[in-house]
Amino acid sequence: MELNTEIETADRQQLTELQSKRLVKMVERIYNNVPFYKQKFKEKGIEPGDIKSIDQLKHLPFTIKSDLRDNYPFGLFTVPQSEIVRLHASSGTTGKPTVVGYTRNDINTWSEVVARSLTMAGITKNDIIQVAYGYGLFTGGLGLHYGAERVGASIIPISGGNTKKQLQLMQDFGSTAIACTPSYAAYLAESIIKEGIPQEKIKLRAGIFGAEPWTEEMRQQIEKMMHIKAYDIYGLSEIIGPGVSMECQHQCGSHIFEDHFIPEIINPETLEVLPYGELGELVFTTVTKEAMPLLRYRTRDLTRLHPEKCACGRTLVRMEKCLGRSDDMLIIRGVNVFPSQVESVLLEMSETTPHYQMIVTRENNLDELEIKVEVDDQFWSDEIKILEGLKKRIHHNISSVLGINAQIKLVEPNTIERSEGKAKRVIDNRKL
Amino acid sequence: MAENDINISAFSIADAPDYGILRLVVGRPDLALKILKEKGYTVNTTEVVCVIVPNKPGGLHKVLRILSDNDIQIDYMYAFAVGNEASVVLRAPSNENVIKVLQENKMELVRANQIYQI
Fold first, then answer.
1. Which residues in chain A are contacts of B76 at CB distance < 8 A?
2. A359/B contact by beta carbon, under 8 A
3. What are the tens digits of pLDDT across the range A28-52?
4. I need a surface site. Which of A211, A278, A386, B82 has the fewest CB within 10 A?
5. Rounded Cα–Cα distance for residues A6 and A26 (Å)
């Protein structure tokens, strides 16, 4: 059942020893190769030799998303470019993307954790898996691809979108598994019903869904409509991509692959480490990554950890579905969106004010983003072509920065509701 | 506007999908701007040209032909006819140009003091 039984069912002491050994090596690696970390250690008065086990992890400095931006693009890499075999990127909080690099061994590690994840969902070489995550800079498509190849399944690398083709190949090739965002899965499920495709033509039995938050209700809905078991896969590109943790058939939280990623839960205000079972911000330390190991990376995802052995036999700690964020990041159609990105675009345009409101809705299981923008008094023209031209430019600038399409609505100054002088930036009407 | 004794001589409404634009020709533009702003409207002033044409077939055509021959674009216009005459309000990228060309062609323009309230 487990791909790596030795690790996945290891007893806690065994695992802690492995983690400690790896942490010591990782700390040495970043101290000696990344000026950013060396500086941070010096500020705290810590030498790599002080770190003997994971008990001391709590004394080490954190890494946050803006550290990645400040060291853009390759400042946090521990290896020369010649050792890097892959680069991925996701949207950052402002203009610049968050870049991650992989050595050959990193790709190996990533393939292994995704392969373990797929194995948890019962995927074997006898499966045909349709990878409907986007292929490209986003880690979803290629991450699932390499993991599925490791398992030996037959991959349909169809990437995202093009629903008609998805449904056609699903029937013609007899896909038994599908990997995509949960909202796209729900959309596909509805399309199957709408197109009147008979149930016996669909061979799917498992879905591996992630890259955006989804609820238990949504899972039940997808499972019922598609006649499959829907598994939650968790990950973020900074840590490795999908495959940081994965649900087993008991669906009682996602097992974190702790031999590679050490989790902690902290109080996002005081930054102190919280015990198992308490709600807080999830933090990861990557102990095996070569190209870009991160120390205590703050994910901003809020969740709880549970260490009890699972009914599946795994001893790896389980994380609950993320209950929200400790920052203002939105995940829209699987894409990370920060209000500050919208703000930076509007500030660059003289006609607009930095007052805006992002309204997110989910229609037919697809996320829609509308942005209301207050137009400066003196730029309100009585000529429609000027206003429509302005709207088009805002739309173009915002969509190209966010990487998703947004509807723009021009509004008069002072019409967006303010609380304590600040406009309410985000209204998320999706029921998550 | 009535409370402040401001007369509206002409208006038109332009409707876009998300908003509407009301264009007004008023007797006291500066006061109207101040009052509407105070009431929370987004309001701006813009220059337009008002030309008188005979209220008969081909009356407007004559003006448009002159502008067209002089390569002048019209952004928008609205008009109203009563009796023997029709008044046409029009806005072009350069109103000075419109005035010059129409005067050269002996067209009758409405002067601001015919509309403005003293």
1. 382-383
2. no
3. 999 999 999 999 999 999 999 999 9
4. B82
5. 22
DSSP annotation of A63 = B
CB A3 within 8 A of CB A153: no
- Asked if residue A240 and residue A292 are part of one domain, the reply reads yes
Shared-domain flag, residues A275 and A376: no
Determine contact, residues A178/A185, Cβ cutoff 8 Å.
yes
Q: What is the ipTM of this complex?
A: 0.74
Q: Residue A380 and residue B44: Cβ atoms within 8 Å?
A: yes
Q: Domain holding A407: CATH number? A: 3.30.300.30
Contacts with B, A 361-400, CB within 8 Å: 377-378, 380-385, 387-388
Residues in chain B, pLDDT under 70 = 118
Residues A267 and A125 in one domain: yes
Query: For residues A292 and A76, is the Cβ–Cβ distance under 8 A?
Result: yes
Q: List the domains of chain B with CATH numbers.
A: 1-45 (no CATH), 49-113 (3.30.2130.10)
Q: Which domain holds residue A148?
A: 69-327
CATH of residue A104's domain is 3.40.50.12780
Taking CB atoms and an 8 Å cutoff, what residues of chain B touch A385?
75
User: Does A270 reside within a domain?
Assistant: yes
> Does a structural domain hold residue A27?
no
What is d(CA A340, CA A267) in angstroms, rounded to the nearest whole number?
24
CA distance A67 to A70: 5
